[in-house]
Write a structure and sequence with these properties.
The chain is an alpha/beta fold. It contains ten helices and eleven strands.
Length: 327
Amino acid sequence: MLVSLFPFLCGDEQEDRVGFSGCLPRSKRDGNRMTMTLNFTLQRRMGRLCAGAATLLTLTACAPPSAGPELADLYGRAEILYRTEAKFRTEYDPIDAPIDAQALERNFLKLAFNSEEQVIDNKTIVPGGTVQLLRWSSDVTYSSIGISLADSRHLDALALRIGGVIGRDVIATDDLAGADVKIWMLNGRERALLRENVADRFGESLGGFITAWTRRPELPCIGMISTDPKDDSLSVGLIFVKAELSGNFRRACITEEFTQVFGLINDDPQARPSIFNDDQEFIELTRHDEYLLKVLYDPRLRAGMTEAEARPLVRRIVQDIPGLAGP
């Protein structure tokens, strides 16, 4: 979900135990714009998760936890609820959700050139609107802190898969400060430490968004992308995931946030089968998602294009995909 563009700021480059130092290399700081994403919002389901046997309690009355085993339990119950609603599907090419050229073209244009309004506590952080094409101009490096061995294996496999689709090398590195994409998996104590330094590290506006993530259970994971004003290409991605997540919920957060930092930031309810959809019906990359990424990184397109500029090219690109049925 594309939220907004902000000036991107970092604090002094000094070491700390959670790895917040060097969040953006100094050479990339001046003039960069920041795009914020927020995924897996549980606002609509929190009431049901907090409900008693007879009474549906409100979010405030339920007083859901913000960290620790209680939050882990809440996320576990959320996953169960998603599954009872036939969500969290993992099929690559589901037979009940066929995709054709017309739908692919429509979905790409909605996902690549639009953003959604983001509201927290009835306050609009940033308005929605149209955006220009976002993508990386070259190979992409990524690094992480706090993830498990299973997380790392999943992330490496996902990076290899995405790289093969977009024609870029997506490479793991131990250099967090220098990595293009930085991933933090943080527990409650570490999120509290982040709150203490968030304004200095990330600036007031962006810091407020990250602080909301650290406190609110309905925000299990968030991501941000920085663009280079020189050529409008992506320059840095930041991903924050709560360590209390487990199972497929944890895997789904990693998959969606990591995939979205490659440029398709928006979500749309008609994008199906896809992870670029707020309903979380699908939590693994589908064939449709791979087509969307393939279109985004086609050499006929470039970072910074408007929808009007890209539309005729997108139609030709989609028509060139082998085996994709026409309208």
